[in-house]
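Request:
Um, any thoughts?
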Amino acid sequence: MLRRVARALAILAAILAFGTAGYTVIEGWPALDSLYMTVITIATVGFHEVGKLSDGGRIFTIGLIFAGVGGLAYSFGTIVEFMVEGHLRGLLEGRRMNKRISELRDHYIIVGIGRVGSVVAHTFADEGVDFVVVDTCEECASTAEEAGWLYIHGDATDEEVLHSAGVTKAKGMVTALDTDAGNLFVSLTARSLNSSLYIVARSSQIASEVKILRSGADRVLTPNVIGGRRMAAMVLHPVVSDYLDVVTHGDQVDYTLESMKVTRESKFSGRSIREAKVRDATGAYILAVDGVSDGLNTNPSPDTVLMPGDQLVVLGTQVQLEKLAELL
C-alpha cells in the first residue's frame, strides 16, 4: 500500500511539474503563475486564468485537464484509501512497536510462531518476560497483534532483522522454524552477532541435532522425540509423570520448579546445605546443584557446599521461592 501512495504522490508531482513547465514555455509566465494556473486547472475550481491564453496555451490546457483531473482523482483516492483502511494507523503502530523493541534489554527472541513457537510465546507471556516474535508469515502479524506480542515481520537469517529484534541486547533465543536448515542458519547468524546469547533450537530429525549445535545453538530439541518419550513415561510411570507435569506447569498446585544462582553476597555462599538450613529458612527444597567446578549434582547431600556461581534447581511455592531468591 505504501508503494501505491508513493506512486500516487509521484504522479501528482509529475503533473504539477509538467503543467508549470508547459505554461512557462508556451506563455512565458513566471514559475509561480504557471504553477497557480496548473493547480486551478486540474482542481477545476473555475478561477480566472492568470493571463490571456494563446491557441497553443488553450490546447495545452485541454490536455492538462484530461491528464490532471484523472491523476488528481487517482492520487486523492489512493491517499484516502490509505487512511481509511487503517494503513496509516498501522504504520504509526509499527513505529511505536519498533521503539518499544529498541528499548528492550535482557529479553528473549522467538523465531517462528507455528505450532511450537506459539506455545513458547504463550508460555513467555504467562511468565511475564519480555520477548519479540520474528516470522515471515503474513497471518502471524495479526496473531501477534491480537495476543499483544511485540512482532517483527522478516527473515531471521538476515542480520538486519535480528538487529531490529535487539539480538545484541537479548538474553536468549528460541528458534522454532519448520526446517532444520532454517534453524541452523538462524542459530549461526545469531551466534555471530551475540556470543553470550543462550539459543534453544528446534530440530525435526535427530541427525540434525549435532549440526545445529555446531552452528551455535546451546540446546537442540526434537519435539517428536520428546513427545514420544513423554507418552511412554505416562504409560510406564503415570504417577511420576503426573507429578512432574504438575510441578513444571504449576497450574494445579502452588509448588513450582525454578532455577536460581548463588551470588558472592549470599548468606549461603561457602556454606553447606545443612549449615545454611535452606529448608528451615525458606521452606523451599534444593533438588539439584549445577556446580561451577564439579558440574551437575542431581541429588545433593546436606553436606554439599554452595559456592558463588552455582545454579540451584529448587522446588517451592511462589512465596518460598521469592524468599530463597532474596537470600541467594
User: Anything to note?
Assistant: The domain at 104-226 is CATH 3.40.50.720 (Rossmann fold).
